[in-house]
Amino acid sequence: MRDFFKYMAASAIGTLVGLFSLIALLGVGAIGLAGLFITSASSDTEPEVEKNSILVFDLATDIVDAVPYSGASVVLEETLYGNPYRSMSLHSALEAIEAAATDNNITGIYLTGNTNAGLGTLKEIRAALEKFKADSGKPVLANNSVWSERDYYLASVADSLYLNPAGILELNGFRAEIQFLAGALSKYGVGVQVLRAGRYKSAIEPFTRTTSSPEEKQQTQALLTDLWQEFLTTASEARETTPKSIQAIAENQGLLPAAEAQTAGLIDNVAFYDDVLSELRALTKQTDEKWVEDEDDFTQISLHRYSQTLSPDIGKDTIAIVYASGEIIDGEGTTPGTITSGGLSDTLRQVRHDNDIEAVVLRVNSPGGSAIASEIIAREVELLAAEKPVIVSMGNYAASGGYMIAAPGDQIFATPSTVTGSIGVYGLRLNFKEIANRNGVTWDVIKTAKLADINTISRPQSEDELKLQQGFVNTLYDRFVSLVADGRELPKEKINQVAQGRVWSGTDAQSANLVDQMGGLNDAIAAAAEAAELDDWHVEELPKPPSFEEQLFESLFGVGVVTRLPWAQDPISQEAMKLREDLTLLKTLNDPQGVYMRLPFTTEIE
Fold it and tell me: What are its E.C. numbers (predicted)?
């Protein structure tokens, strides 16, 4: 017995020593990490704007709707992986461009790099650059070695547009390429059964067909035509040519060498970077001799750093911008890239009960998602709109569930390139009976009611089960149409005509009375101020990003640090990124009933 207690005591002491050692080790590690963060943070000196500076907008900067995370997760990533990453909110970018117009230290704006932003976002930035030129008389220059159509849509606003002598201007039109999985699923014995309300609701087609349906081809062609027409009109007006001329290039050439692009009047100069550098230095009113020690430099400040020098709004009244960005999922809290029903609902309730907030701009940039989560959020928007003006600003997407949460707003703004509508519902029922049986796997079910195994994957659904679930989908669709009709103050029959799951461009959505006005985020903010009769106001962006401590904890003990991939132009990297996005999408399909209000695709300009 004495030995027993001796061993117990030794074990306890050993455990305590080990525990204290672990705590000490973690403490040292935490101190080391803290030192890394402090070192990193202190090295990022307070930005200053030198006299005669060029405002540099690197188009690779990730322009996002919501206020980006810029604390622990980014610092940790840069410290550990050496992967510099810059993102800023669209509101901050627009504010910075507007402020530069009246800043005597800024002599012009320089655009460079390649963008991954959507056309809706680019439309708003382009409008801000046009206003900058008109208000200030200062020049905008743009230079690159390759201008894609997406880049060119923005860069064509420049007074001086440069292209490297070996460079290329891409003008070959827009395309949508849809991948179909039905053949592979059939080959490997995966059964698919479909529930759908809305004849244009084509999100299920990749699982059930080998080509697009006539309805899908019709709506996708119409959408691409509208987006392409917006590009043609914008680019041709900026370059003083005609849409017909650019269309001819797209039909017959597609890729223009620099010299031919200049001959066609689509760029101003064919130039190496040192030639462009001389122009930039001239704008800073300093000669090349000043830069002998650093041949690549000129007096400059990045758009990201410049935005940090601006004083915050100090208006008396408050307009809240509430961001709804990403896939709509069922759940609580906040997750980057998604809209959780609980998280956004909490934010909307807080805004409703906050007497200091006079008006709200709901910024929607979502292709939709969970049907139930969408309706939960839409209800909170409806309650908010009953008490305060709610102006909706649509970004690149505000479709299906994204449109549902926008519909209760008092006014809806969209850009011509916004992808919206898609008022419909779908569900997929997969079963693995055939592939399982081929490999010797079988099931035996014991149940207390006929429908107890209605959600099983061990067999196809019976006709009665499908009929029952289709009735549920039809009910959700009817509720969707009714909600939109109430929000838009239009007859339900009229909404049903433009619903049916059909996708619309912002331009066509306005004609269909699904959108009130063409305009961007700043237009929506101005409309909110007018609706609330505000003269002296400031903007508060919600939900606020997590604190430094919260981000640090998540980075260390949560999902881990994931290095962001830089935007790549080569086809292999782009396909890899698409696959990553598809796999990420699968994780958001968490509707309790397995039914969704989502776009059939997310458009990429290719």
Answer: 3.4.21.-
